[in-house]
Write a structure and sequence with these properties.
The complex is a heterotrimer of chains A (307), B (248) and C (320).
Chain A (H helix, E strand, L loop, with lengths): L2 H32 L6 H19 L2 H22 L9 H23 L15 E4 L3 E4 H23 L1 H11 L1 H6 L4 H27 L7 H14 L4 H27 L4 H26 L11
Antiparallel strand pairs in A: 1-2
Helix pairs in contact in A: 1-5, 1-6, 1-8, 1-9, 1-10, 2-3, 2-8, 3-8, 5-6, 9-10, 9-11, 10-11
Chain B lengths: L5 E10 L2 E11 L4 E5 L6 H9 L6 E6 L2 E2 L5 H7 L1 E4 L11 H11 L15 H14 L14 H13 L5 E5 L7 H14 L4 E5 L3 H7 L2 E6 L2 E6 L1 H6 L1 H8 L3
Parallel strand pairs in B: 3-8, 3-9, 6-7, 7-8
Antiparallel strand pairs in B: 1-2, 1-4, 4-5, 9-10
Helix pairs in contact in B: 3-4, 3-5
Chain C lengths: L3 H4 L1 H22 L4 H23 L11 H15 L5 H23 L4 H21 L9 E2 L16 H24 L1 H11 L1 H6 L4 H27 L1 E2 L6 H14 L6 H19 L4 H14 L3 H8 L6
Antiparallel strand pairs in C: 1-2
Helix pairs in contact in C: 2-3, 3-7, 3-10, 3-11, 3-12, 4-5, 4-10, 5-10, 7-8, 8-10, 11-12
The chains are: A mainly alpha (307), B alpha/beta (248), C mainly alpha (320).
């Protein structure tokens, strides 16, 4: 058993989990508080990647690229909310699905035209483009460690926001009982916009920090979006804790699964069969996991209260 | 003393720290109309939800007609003869009045994995449905879309749907909710006419109806039965007066 | 079906649509646009898929964002069997339909334990899974798709699917059959249970219907019908690819059903035709037609009073 490889893949998986958490956290709040199916969340992820890459290009600085892109994400999120999404809160899920689907089509095409099919690169600064060696001989690209650290900081910040502040209390209350917060005299529309803005920044941030590895491209948001859905289903709608647990589990199983399924299969299948079955099975792992969890807990690991 | 048709043994249900049903012991005799009254928040709807199978109790047993139905699914309880009506009108608004009742009848006629013949034209469904509707006074409205009925008529349809399943016992969750004086009186006399055929457990706030109809009354406060007995005894009971009836 | 259906404006409209489909192989050349026939053949295949989605979504209230997966399963079954030299329709078609039904059963068993938002997301996730699976099958073309060398062979003289007219009218016949079968199903006892369940599931359970089983059956029926659509697509295009079951295709299907009128018999046909006309028209203007289609979708949803369903209702559709 190659422990070094195991360790490396664990880190890769954990990093994927962090990215998924950033996507899923905003999404689960939007579902939980606003009961809205927002397919365009992946588009926000794409916005983040492109905004940061572009701003970095203009300012010549990686860090400025990210720092400036965050407020831009907030503005973009709020604008999207005010112009399109506000009207959807009251509507049926079907309306929400169709409308946000239209948004995806539009923005993917728009960014395709503006940036071309190749997309845009977001080069890493030299300071973090090396390889770090951890105890035990495990090597990890420095930037992945950066992602993990940043992601955990954001998770911590989110936890403090939701658990310790007044706004956070409203969010938690809203996640379990929307009518109640309206009855308390809180400006519900304002709260919704704020929550959506927060979700947009989180998704955009995820897009930003991943882009140096993957490049910013039209349509980049949809696969993470669907994985984020799986995370939420596993974790439970409206639960940030669930999003974190679900995201980490998903990231680790997906990454380690892909690495080790081939090896595992070779022990009892011949080469050619294992070669074709391997990728097939590993791509299904996450969904099998999701199905398994749903079999026992149809509302996820941390279901909304009163369910 | 005959065997009770419905018996609750140490029934318990809580939501987090809130106790909705507090080790409740309770019996309904066959053929009686047993009313449950109590202040809001006493746990009456939660109780009906557990008896009808919409909610799982956290402890205790529910026995019906000689069998333990504690873990039985809601559809199966209906087949066993126990059916409920809802406090918030739950008729099928996009169907006609007749179709609503026909569905109840259809449920009693075996499985519905029948894909070919039109259900609306099926006299085996339509004729019995019309009978029930005529008995309750909705015969004229049979082809009207259920959503277009007046509130009082919708409440009547609630009951008709339940009757269509040929039950032994009815669980009536505030059948007179939101009704005006006239409608209430009509409903009261209708329910009275049903007493000979069905056992009924009635949850109601309308005290005139309760005292006119009930053979026995149980008073529920904070998930506990604080008093149970004949209507006059309940009316005279000091605890009950304090907790609920006031100057009624 | 009584002829009363034709007397309403909506009924007349539906009749026109059907006649259009029936006579397109003659209308198209008369207009000097031969390729319209091909477009309509494709449209009718999509109409079958839309009819199947309408069964569970329009009549059953199950919003499946993964329905296109069955088009892929039906198509790939035919493609893979042909790849291995099996061209007989008597093997291909039952296998493809059975595969669609089986997968629908598995997905349905799991998905139907959930409701609302969860259900939408899970059906989407399952489609993705199959999509990824098909991409990972290097042997069968992966991303690039699989070319199909021969069409399903029925072994009947004068009935050769390689003949364009034969295929066209076969598709037409199957489409009309699908519509008719759906019509009978939704008006049957089974249909009443499904529709009642959409209206109020708790109520249905409390009067004695174990709705889960019925919804599952509807889900499987819809899956099989949609698989048929995939089989026909494989035969028409001589090609299958993972793209057939990508989630945007599922989104297109939902749009067709909603646009045509949810819970109506001919709605899906109308929706499919409008969708394809729209796509043809817009893609002739620009290859970036999503730039127009996207906002169009958003505007239709936002400004149609009561959503898209309400809009269609206003255009004079009584439920048939």
């Amino acid at each position: 058993m190659n422990y070094v490889l195991l360790g490396e893949q664990f880190f890769n998986g954990f990093q994927l989990g962090i990215i998924l958490f950033l996507m899923a956290a905003g999404l689960t709040l939007i579902f939980g508080i606003m009961d809205m199916v927002n397919l365009a969340h992946g588009t926000l992820y794409m916005f983040g990647g492109f905004f940061a890459a572009t701003l970095a290009f203009w300012t010549g600085s990686f860090v400025w690229g990210i720092v400036l892109a965050i407020p831009v994400m907030m503005i973009a999120g709020v604008l999207l909310d005010l112009i399109v999404l506000r009207t959807l809160y009251e509507r049926s899920h079907l309306d929400q699905v169709l409308a946000t689907f239209g948004l995806i089509l539009f923005f993917n095409e728009l960014f395709l035209i503006v940036y071309g099919p190749e997309g845009m690169a977001f080069p890493l600064p030299k300071a973090v483009s090396g390889i770090a060696t951890l105890p035990g001989g495990i090597t990890v690209p420095e930037y992945r460690l950066v992602i993990i650290v940043l992601g955990l900081l954001v998770a911590l910040g989110l936890y403090l926001l939701v658990a310790k502040t007044r706004v956070g209390m409203l969010i938690r209350a809203g996640a379990s009982n929307r009518e109640m917060i309206g009855a308390l005299g809180i400006n519900v529309k304002l709260l919704f916009t704020a929550v959506f803005g927060l979700g947009a920044v989180l998704a955009g941030f995820a897009g930003m920090i991943v882009t140096p590895i993957t490049q910013a491209q039209s349509g980049m948001g949809e696969d993470p979006l669907i994985l984020a859905f799986v995370v939420i289903v596993i974790g439970g709608i409206g639960s940030i804790r669930g999003a974190f647990v679900g995201a980490v589990i998903t990231g680790i199983i997906d990454t380690m699964g892909r690495s080790f399924i081939d090896v595992g299969l070779l022990t009892f299948l011949d080469g050619e069969a294992a070669e074709s079955a391997g990728p097939a099975i590993s791509s299904m792992l996450i969904y099998i996991l999701m199905a398994g969890i749903l079999a026992f807990k149809p509302q996820g690991l941390f279901p909304p209260r009163g369910a | 003393m005959t065997e009770p048709i419905l018996k609750l043994v140490n029934l318990a249900k809580h939501f987090g720290g809130l106790v909705a049903t507090d080790n409740l012991n309770f019996e309904v005799e066959p053929g009686e109309l047993h009313a449950i009254i109590g202040p809001n928040g006493a746990g009456k709807t939660t109780l009906i939800n557990q008896i009808s199978g919409m909610m799982k109790p956290d402890g205790g047993q529910i026995l019906f007609d000689g069998g333990d139905i504690t873990h039985m699914s809601a559809p199966n309880r209906c087949h066993a003869g126990l059916v409920r009506s809802f406090q918030i009108t739950s008729i099928l608004k996009n169907f006609s009045v007749a179709e609503n009742v026909s569905l109840g009848i259809q449920a009693r006629q075996g499985h519905s994995f029948k894909f070919w013949n039109p259900a609306r034209a099926d006299t085996a469904l339509h004729d019995p449905a019309l009978e029930i509707l005529n008995a309750i006074g909705l015969g004229e409205r049979a082809e009207v879309l259920a959503g277009n009925l007046a509130h009082g008529e919708q409440r009547q349809l609630e009951i008709a749907m339940a009757l269509a399943t040929s039950p032994k016992m009815l669980l009536l969750d505030e059948p007179m909710a939101g009704m005006g004086r006239e409608d209430c009186e009509r409903m009261t006399s209708y329910l009275s006419s049903l007493k000979s055929e069905y056992t009924m457990l009635l949850i109601e706030h309308d005290m005139d109806a309760v005292f006119a109809l009930a053979d026995r009354i149980t008073v529920l406060v904070y998930g506990q039965a604080i008093a149970s007995g004949a209507p006059d005894d309940i009316r005279a009971n000091e605890d009950v007066r304090r907790a609920y009836l006031g100057d009624d | 079906m009584s002829f009363d259906l034709i007397k309403t404006p909506r009924g007349a409209f539906n009749l026109v649509l059907v006649l259009l489909c029936a006579f397109m192989p003659f209308i198209a050349p008369a207009l000097g646009q031969d390729y319209y026939t091909d477009v309509f053949a494709r449209t009718m295949i999509w109409a079958i898929a839309a009819v199947s989605l309408n069964l569970i979504m329009g009549y059953g209230g199950m919003i499946s964002f993964g329905h296109a997966v069955y088009i892929g399963i039906g198509g790939y079954a035919v493609g893979i069997l042909t790849f291995h030299g099996i061209e007989s329709a008597y093997i291909q078609w039952p296998v493809a339909l059975a595969a669609s039904g089986l997968i629908a059963l598995i997905f349905g068993v799991i998905s139907l334990r959930t409701r609302g938002v969860y259900f939408i997301m899970i059906t989407l996730a399952f489609t993705q899974m199959v999509h990824f699976l098909s991409v990972s099958l290097e042997k069968y073309g992966s991303d690039d798709g699989l070319t199909i060398d021969a069409r399903s062979d029925f072994g009947i003289p004068f009935f050769d699917l390689n003949d364009a007219m034969t295929l066209y009218y076969f598709i037409f016949a199957l489409m009309m059959a699908s519509i008719y079968i759906t019509y009978r199903i939704v008006n049957s006892r089974f249909g009443m249970v499904i529709r009642g369940s959409m209206s109020n599931d708790d109520r249905m359970r409390s009067i004695g219907f174990p709705t889960y089983g019925y919804k599952l059956a509807a889900f499987v029926i819809a899956g099989v019908m949609c698989g048929l659509s995939g089989i026909l697509s494989a035969n028409l295009e001589d090609f299958v690819s993972p793209d057939m079951m990508s989630w945007p295709r599922s989104g297109d299907l939902i749009f067709m059903v909603v646009l045509g009128g949810m819970g109506t018999i001919f709605g899906p046909l109308g929706g499919a035709i409008v969708f394809w006309i729209l796509q043809e028209f817009l893609s002739n203007i620009t290859e970036h037609w999503h730039l127009i289609f996207g906002p169009f979708l958003v505007i239709v949803v936002l400004f149609a009073r009561g959503g898209v369903e309400g809009l269609i209702g206003q255009l004079g559709g009584r439920r048939d």
